[in-house]
Automatic annotation (TrEMBL), chain A:
It is found in: Cell membrane; Membrane. It comes from Streptomyces cyaneogriseus subsp. noncyanogenus. InterPro entries: MetI-like, MetI-like_sf. Gene3D superfamilies: MetI-like (1.10.3720.10). The keyword Transferase does not apply. This is Glycine/betaine ABC transporter permease. CDD domains: TM_PBP2. Its main location: membrane. Belongs to the binding-protein-dependent transport system permease family. GO terms for molecular function: amine transmembrane transporter activity; carnitine transmembrane transporter activity. Pfam families: BPD_transp_1. GO terms for cellular component: ATP-binding cassette (ABC) transporter complex. SUPFAM superfamilies: MetI-like (SSF161098).
Automatic annotation (TrEMBL), chain B:
One of its GO terms (cellular component) is ATP-binding cassette (ABC) transporter complex. Residues 37-304 form the ABC-type glycine betaine transport system substrate-binding domain. This is Glycine/betaine ABC transporter substrate-binding protein. Keywords: Signal. GO terms for molecular function: transmembrane transporter activity. Pfam families: OpuAC (PF04069). The keyword Signal applies. It comes from the Bacteria. Residues 1-20 form the signal peptide.
């Protein structure tokens, strides 16, 4: 599809303009020369013209009033949403009681045995250690609450995602319809739809599970579709020749062939659901996220860390175990009988635990890490904040960064005439992709103006650009180092794991203590979050460069630096572009969190909307973030690779 | 096609048990897991509210034998949750006229639970070390002269007025505009961020101007002096865009879910009786926020040393 559309604009160009980029720009310049004077004369040349905005706060306000007035009586709530909500509560409760009943010994044994069967001895030991660490941190019960929530949310996400993926994998039409829907589900900041979900379901577990499903189902859907589409045509033909029906083909050939993708989808869904665990605590989901959130309220980094570590451990264990299961697919796992043994062993341990009266985690086996952590954080922030000889303190850097980078970029963007910003985006997107890409990007940016949030959107955009620049500069440097040294990569791996899965609420306080309130700590939080993905993709991309090419360069006497600049970096270009794209998307995902530390702009509006029950402010700001996401995605992602996105 | 849709809808209805499902009758799946009577309290993000909830929780558990769940939510969603019965009580409300009208007067799903005994006040504050050096900074008319001292990178060329969490009651933006002050409101975005910033300023004895509120434990750590704004008169804050007066003194209120107030037995009576002073609350709040005691232990310490206060709350 991509190649077909890419051909179109070239054919329309006159003969001498062979060069595609120049042609595109010329065409755009001609269009601009015609349209811009007209638009500028009619609507002025400053910020977004007021005549072109639509105020949707009144209808959104009415919608929210309607829900509040009808949710106790309307049949939609009584006969449908009410049952959904009940079903969620009942299943979460069932899982939770089961976990509590098994006791800490039973749960640890079950986790370790399952990990042993699907992933080997090392991961089994790791799993057991992780569970015991959760108990040692005094977080056993919250961990079980989060686990119960996760089991139900992941099951629901996988079911929904697999159904959507099945539809998209079997029908091209559904695929086209679903793709933008899935894009939106992933880019729409979770904070923005927490409010509508809360209005309908009230605070608590059902709302949290549904918000998680919206967020975590898309990767499952995408990978299911990818797996079904990627099935080997020869195998399918062979199966068809046996005279099977369409359903038999699906069940016996296409789904089994897509096993790897399905398992990867499960892995991604688990990761995304876990990252929602903390955000969902804002609407009263309980569990570990709630502990992190409450610790934030009393400015207690140590307590937040004690609740954050189990989240990291759960994420790492689940990631490794499902990942290992994917690699060993078909070779291990064993028969149903071995699984019966596993189950029996776990039950035996649980029963033994109960008989010994040890099913609750013993209160005396708790290590208090909050005190030392708080002292360490206090020391670091007190000594690095300002007045460090020669280099200045972090607060000085932050002030400098705000004054010399963030302010000029923001003021520059906001000072430009509105049509010129649109034009610039159109040009960039067209150079990278097709005229369709350009149109989408331009319309998405225009939408922020129509929604009446042009200025805050450009403010947010300036923060994103600055954060992406910092992320790429550091990420590429670290990525190169990791690619060149195995030792460095081994050391980095756990650090990256922690950075990627540690809830952002945990490091907000240290970040503010170091950089002060404002846009600088928001950028810092975004960099911390986006860095691991950029490092990983860069390192992987560089390592996969054809060894033959490197070898020949080495034989010609190229130095390490020359090899890097002239061979590795150019050859790893696709991976580097992907790193840029992922950096942008992840930075944008943290924009809301930035609102919590003084980032202002759209992130603050979303947080404000949720805090004040103001559907209009929150949803409009959320929609604007989605639009920015579309713009940045289209501008940074060459069209050719779109098919693999989200995997 | 139509037939199939009906069939699917019918099947769904059968599956879900046909009956009406009342969403207001749901408890948390984690509640009550060990078979006790449960009360759910809403806790707001500031430490004063945590102190209220911690002491109520401790006494409900140890004196009356309830299991207590706490849920942390912002204020407006908390009202919503209270009306739906997801939480049974809000211990500390700073005034939400719109919600009171909707839920207390019209829908009657929430009832008043009486005063908490603590009077709240919002205002603009400067650190006392700064006010001592420049005594005239405590009148809003002189603030412009100090704008240069209070400038930060984030406030551009103007002075910085530090505001807090988006969930708090504030008209600072309108105030700065209507009093024609040379200041920019910078929203910290959360109370945690605001406190961290204030402490960081105080450590270096830097001047700052902040939106803040009393009672608050931070005054014990960073003494602050209030800046006089034009005095509050009834109704002067009626139009949010035209506000040009300071904030009122608000006796903080408790609110209970209506069903819980009727059928909640001893727990409901206890929560209605709960009434303590600013000093009591600050004592507990300081233990939680500064000594980093878990709220439960802070509550225990206070309960052990003030039996005469809480004995009167027991039904």
């Amino acid at each position: 599809m991509a190649t077909a559309t890419a051909g179109a604009p070239r054919a329309a160009l006159p003969g001498p303009l062979r060069h595609r980029a120049a042609g595109k720009l010329l065409l755009l310049a001609v269009a601009a020369a015609v349209l811009v004077p007209f638009a500028a004369a009619r609507w002025g040349s400053g910020g977004w013209p007021a005549a072109l905005t639509v105020d949707i706060s009144a209808p959104l306000g009415r919608a929210s009033d309607w829900i509040i007035d009808n949710r106790d009586s309307h049949p939609l709530f009584l006969y449908f949403l009410g049952h959904v909500s009940n079903a969620v509560v009942v299943s979460v409760r069932a899982v939770y009681l089961l976990l509590l009943g098994a006791g800490w010994a039973g749960v640890t044994a079950l986790g370790a045995l399952v990990a042993w069967r699907v992933a080997g001895v090392r991961l089994a030991l790791g799993t057991a250690a992780a569970f015991l660490a959760c108990g040692l941190l005094g977080m056993w019960v919250p961990t079980m609450q989060t686990l119960a929530l996760m089991v139900v949310a992941v099951a629901a996400s996988v079911a929904v995602g697999a159904l959507l993926g099945l539809a998209a994998g079997l029908s091209n039409r559904m695929d086209r319809v679903l793709r933008p829907v899935l894009d939106t589900m992933q880019v729409l900041p979770a904070f923005a739809y927490l409010l509508p979900v809360v209005l309908v379901f009230g605070i608590g577990v059902p709302a949290a599970v549904l918000a998680t499903v919206v967020y975590a189902a898309p990767p499952m859907a995408r990978l299911t579709a990818l797996g079904l589409r990627g099935a080997d045509p020869e195998v399918l033909e062979a199966v068809e020749s046996l005279g099977t029906t369409a359903r038999q083909r699906l069940l016996t050939a296409r789904i089994p062939l897509a096993r790897k993708e399905l398992l990867l989808g499960l892995n991604q869904t688990i990761m995304m659901a876990l990252s929602m665990a903390v955000i969902a605590s804002v609407i009263g989901a309980g569990g570990l996220g709630d502990r992190v959130y409450q610790a934030l309220a009393s400015v207690d980094v140590g307590a937040a860390l004690a609740a954050g570590i189990p989240i990291v451990l759960l994420a790492v264990v689940l990631d490794r175990v499902t990942g290992a299961a994917g690699e060993r697919l078909g070779t291990a796992g064993g028969t149903p009988v071995t699984w019966l043994y596993v189950l029996a062993a776990a039950v035996a341990v649980a029963v033994a635990g109960r008989l010994l009266g040890r099913s609750d985690w013993p209160g005396s086996w708790v290590a208090d890490i909050a005190g030392p952590v708080n002292r360490a954080v206090g020391w670091i922030t007190a000594h690095l904040h300002s007045g460090v000889p020669y280099v200045g303190g972090t607060a000085d850097w932050a002030a400098g960064f705000t004054t010399w980078v963030l302010d000029p970029v923001r003021d520059g963007l906001q000072g430009l005439p509105w049509w010129s910003v649109l034009l610039a985006v159109a040009a960039l997107a067209w150079l990278v992709g097709t005229w369709r890409t350009a149109l989408t990007a331009t319309l998405a940016l225009a939408a922020t103006g129509v929604l009446g949030v042009w200025k805050p959107s450009l403010d947010t955009l300036s923060q994103v650009l600055a954060a992406v620049a910092v992320t790429l500069a550091t990420g590429l440097a670290i990525g190169v180092a990791a690619a060149r040294s195995d030792r460095c990569e081994r050391l980095l791996r756990p650090v990256l794991d922690v950075l990627q899965t540690m809830p952002q609420f945990v490091y907000l306080i240290p970040v503010v203590a170091l950089f002060g309130v404002g846009r600088a700590p928001a950028v810092a939080a975004a960099v911390v979050y986006a860095l691991p993905a950029v490092v990983r993709i860069t390192a992987q991309g560089l390592r996969q460069v054809d060894p033959a090419a490197l070898e020949s360069a080495r034989s010609l006497g190229a130095t390490g630096g020359q090899q890097l600049r002239q061979i590795q970096l150019p050859l790893a270009r696709p991976a580097l572009l992907l790193a840029v794209n992922q950096g942008v998307v992840l930075v944008l995902a943290v924009v809301i969190i930035g609102g919590l530390v003084g980032g202002g702009a759209l992130g603050y509006d979303v947080v404000y909307g949720l805090a004040q029950g103001d559907l209009a402010t929150g949803l409009v700001a959320g929609a604007a973030i989605v639009c920015l996401g579309l713009v940045l995605d289209r501008v940074t992602q060459p069209t050719g690779r779109r098919a693999g996105k989200g995997a | 096609m139509r037939l199939r849709t009906t069939a699917v809808a019918g099947a769904l209805l059968l599956l879900t048990g046909c009956g009406a499902a009342d969403m207001t009758q749901q408890a948390s799946p984690f509640a009550n897991a060990r078979g006790a009577k449960t009360v759910t309290l809403s806790v707001q993000s500031w430490v004063g509210a945590q102190a209220d909830a911690a002491v109520a929780e401790y006494l409900l558990e140890h004196e009356l034998g309830y299991h207590v769940d706490t849920v942390q939510v912002d204020e407006v969603p908390a009202w919503d949750a209270l009306s739906q019965g997801r939480v049974d009580a809000i211990m500390e409300d700073w005034g939400h006229p719109e919600q009171e009208r909707r839920y207390v007067e019209e829908k009657k799903t929430i009832v008043r639970g009486g005063e908490l005994g603590v009077t709240g006040h919002i205002g603009w504050f400067v650190p006392t070390y700064f006010a001592k050096r420049h005594p005239d900074v405590t009148d809003w008319k002189n603030l412009d002269r100090y704008a240069g001292l209070l400038r930060t990178a984030e406030s551009g060329g103007k002075g910085q007025l530090l505001d807090g969490s988006p969930s708090y009651v504030t008209h600072d933006k309108a105030l700065v505009k209507n009093l024609k002050l040379d200041y920019k409101v910078v929203f910290a975005g959360s109370e945690a961020a605001q406190i961290t910033q204030i402490k960081q300023f105080a450590r270096e004895k830097k001047p700052f101007l902040t939106y803040w509120y009393a009672p608050q434990w931070l005054f014990e750590k960073v003494p602050m002096t209030e800046v006089r704004l034009p005095p509050y008169r009834e109704g002067c804050d009626a139009d949010p865009a035209k506000v040009a007066c300071g904030y009122p003194h608000t006796p903080l209120q408790k609110y209970l879910n209506a069903d819980f107030a009727r059928n909640g037995g001893e727990a409901a009576r206890f929560l209605k009786n709960f009434r303590w002073t600013t000093e009591d609350q600050n004592e507990v709040a300081l233990m939680i926020a500064e000594e980093k005691l878990p709220p439960r232990e802070a509550a225990k310490k206070w309960v052990d040393s003030h039996p005469s206060v809480w004995k009167e709350w027991l039904p």
